Amino acid sequence: MLQILHNPRCGKSRDCLAFTTKTNTPFEIINYLENPLTVDDLKLLIKKLKIKPIELVRQKETIWIENYKGKSLTNAQIIKALAKHSILIERPIVIDGDNAIIGRDLEKLELFIK
C-alpha cells in the first residue's frame, strides 16, 4: 500500500491525493505536520527518494531563510532541521516500499504508481 506524506494546506499535496484517489490505488495518508518524522525516519526517506538531504528542503520557507540559509550545513544538520521543523519538508511524498518520489509532478507520479 502506498503511503502519502501529506500537508492538507498545500495545493500540490491535495492535487496528489486527488490524483491517487482517481487511480483507485490504495494508500495511507500520513500528516507529517501532526506526526513529525524522526531523524531516523528522515534518513530512511532520503534513502528511498535517492536524493541529498538538501533536496528535501523547502528552501523558500521563512524558517529556512531566517535560520539556515547561507550557512554551511552538514547532511546531519539538515536532517535535524527537517526533524525540528516539519514544514520544511518538500511535499507531497509518495512512498511505495523501498522507493519514494516527491509527487509534485503528476506525470512523474503517474509513472511511479504504475
Strand and helix map with partners:
Layout: E1 2-6, H1 11-22, E2 27-31, H2 39-49, H3 62-67, H4 75-84, E3 93-96, E4 99-102, H5 106-113
Parallel strand pairs: 1-2
Antiparallel strand pairs: 1-3, 3-4
Protein name: Arsenate reductase
InterPro entries: Arsenate_reductase-like, Thioredoxin-like_sf
Pfam family, one: ArsC
Main attributes?
Arsenate reductase; Arsenate_reductase-like; four-stranded mixed sheet; alpha+beta; Glutaredoxin; 5 helices; Thioredoxin-like_sf
CATH class membership: Alpha Beta
What would you give as the CATH superfamily?
Answer: Glutaredoxin
CATH fold topology:
Glutaredoxin
Q: Spans of 5+ residues with little confidence (pLDDT < 50)? A: none
Largest sheet: 4 strands, mixed
**Averaged pLDDT:** 96
**Proportion in β-strands:** 15-25%
Number of strand segments: 4
- In helices, the fraction of residues equals 40-55%
End-to-end CA span: 13 Å
The CATH architecture: 3-Layer(aba) Sandwich
Strand order in the largest sheet: 2-1-3-4
**What's the helix count?**
5
Structure classification: alpha+beta
Q: Which geometry do the CA atoms define?
A: globular
Rg? 14 Å
How many structural units, i.e. domains?
Answer: 1
The H/E string reads EHEHHHEEH
InterPro entries: Arsenate_reductase-like (IPR006660), Thioredoxin-like_sf (IPR036249)
Protein name: Arsenate reductase
Family: Belongs to the ArsC family.
Organism: Flavobacterium sangjuense
